[in-house]
Amino acid sequence: MPKAKKQEEINPKADNADQEWVFKPYKLAKGEEYMNEQQREHFKNMLLKWKKELMEEVDRTVSHMKDEAANFPDPADRATQEEEFSLELRTRDRERKLIKKIDKTIELIEQDEYGYCDLCGVEIGIRRLEARPTANLCIDCKTLDEIKEKQERG
Ligand SMILES: [Zn+2]
Q: Distance, CA 129 to ligand 1 centroid (Å)?
């Protein structure tokens, strides 16, 4: 007899965020309809929580940068600091884009169009969406897409 699997917390990594976060996986009932109201609610909550965390992160950096800004009279220190800032700004830029993507995804949920592959229309699947809540391609299309991208890059 296989051992009963312990309910694990999932820790999805966003497409392009460095941040990790934890969420309880959805308990799928047998024969449950795909993307019923409960599931949509689950993903919406996930996305809202993620967005909130990203926005807090953006706020933290901005105030951190303000605090540090005038603290280095030495030009060499300032150069290092500016490098750090531009790195942080790039990260923040990625996060802002991600927040936009999250907003769009929440819209999809509200329009009841969430969870289906953009290219072939199949169900993306609960577990894949939990790992990547903003995924808009099924695993097959995503794999093909990546192969194509690699070929185009040479
Ligand atoms: Zn597909």
A: 13
